[in-house]
Amino acid sequence: MDYEKEHPTENFLCRLICEELEARPFGRDMCTRFPPEPNGYLHIGSAYAIHTNYTIAQRFNGTFHLRFDDTNPLKEDIEYVNAIIEDIKWLGYDPGKHIYYGSDYSEEIYNAAVKLIKHGKAYVCDLAPEEITEHRGTLAEPGRNSPYRNRSVEENLELFAKMKNGVYPALSKVVRAKIDMSSPNLNLRDPVIYRIIHAEHYRTGNDWCVYPLYDFAHPIQDAIEDITYSLCSIEFKDHRPLYDWVLKELGFSEPPRQREFGRLSLTGVVTSKRFLRQLAEGGYVDGWDDPRLPTLSGLRRRGFTPESIRRFIEEIGSIRTQSTVDISLLDHSLRQDLKATTICVMAVLHPLKVIITNYPDVDFEALEIENNSENEALGKRKVNFSKTIYIERDDFMELPTKGFHRLSLNAEVRLKGAYFIKCEEVIKDPETGEITELRCTYDVLTKSGSGFTGRKVKGTIHWVSAEHAVKADVHLYEKLLLEEEDIPIPKDDIQNWTDRINPKSMVIVKDVLLEPFVEDSRMAQKFQFFRHGYFCVDTKFTTDDRLVFNRIVPLKDTWNKK
């Protein structure tokens, strides 16, 4: 079959797998898996790995498994298990009934280690961790055999049984595969496959005190579940020979195959789980779901949609190596998703009072405004207009600079969905000189939709009626991490990556004024705030008495602007 002609647009993994499947290496259907360790929350890089495994399974009419790599009781917790399941389902990659736990295979994995010992392919080693590292050698020098490498099968079996029964303290003994201490691949230099950990496991309790290393458990778990392709990120490429060695020595027929794809990073964000843990648990941010983090729970709370994340991943395509993608592409994917689906409302973040002197004193009117200029199906809404309104403070300039087309003294501007107004007088605080109020007049003939075709104005600004406005708080987000050139510390004095945290990564604006249309907003409901960007009702801080909005993304890319 000429694969390139049959599937010209598919990625390199699909092409590779399709070519391999032509030889019919499996007597079973396609099956892939995503194996997260439940020691933290998923992030945008995890979404890329999930998408890769899920879509490959779908492409070949197979099954997708979620399997927790939970064989280290010192790090793992049910909180992370529940969060991972929630995130994967939210993304749209529901594994259904195919949710598995590596810890459920503890007996099978232990017996696999026993089998290797019986075949002379594994041994119990008493070297301390630092001694094992020293014996391992370097890329330029071969390793040295452990003095315990030639223990008899009987002694190794006895010692391993005692390890399992809790006779020895942690770190006193390990089980190592017996492969080749002179191999150019350091992963094959008698790697540790079992260690002692005296800690309660969140699922198995105190049933076990010996636990397998991931490189040993991974291929066995795949074989037990009839996985056909173990699709891993690129850092596992050098581990593939060990993956194949384990399956071969244990005699699995039609063993699964490990294949690798590139690892995704984003500019300006941390995707290392270790660093994310420091941020979330060290008080630098508001937990794992802080909207500044690239965790899926953080992106969801900020207001990202699963559709936008899937579109972002599909836009990137399949990558072969470590790749860093500009975060503006993720924001662009979100704008594409929201621009035709959200209602555009008026919100004044920094209010400036405007009194329309020739408007009736005790009157107001309900004006009709379109909900979304790009989607007529979203209809229209009523917005109350009255004598006293608020506009955005930076929409007024007493002495306008060149190119300023909003409101200024003795000039006109259109109020969105309403009338032309002209500023006649500026009121200032006598002590500070700060502008506190504008006195304006309106032209009743210029009402929007009235068919007025007279003089024109260059600018349109948003507003809210003072009498009808709803107060809320708004969280505005910027990059969490500063670029090196923007750090207010000499480069030689930077002690920790946390020195790069941007102090302006979240700005809270209190008492923002919005249309009453938002008053009954639902949790996580999204809006476009005219000229300010896309916003979402915050699910953590909104109460019955107070609305809080997170800015999901500005209307235009601001990440790369100084």
Automatic annotation (TrEMBL):
SUPFAM superfamilies in UniProt:
Nucleotidylyl transferase, Ribosomal protein L25-like
Q: Report domain Glutamyl/glutaminyl-tRNA synthetase class Ib catalytic positions.
A: 31-326
Molecular-function GO terms, alphabetical = ATP binding; glutamine-tRNA ligase activity
Keyword terms, alphabetized? Aminoacyl-tRNA synthetase, ATP-binding, Cytoplasm, Ligase, Nucleotide-binding, Protein biosynthesis
| Domain of life according to the entry | Bacteria
EC main class here is: ligase
Please report which protein family the annotation says this sequence is part of: Belongs to the class-I aminoacyl-tRNA synthetase family.
Q: What is this protein called?
A: Glutamine--tRNA ligase
Originating organism: Paenibacillus foliorum
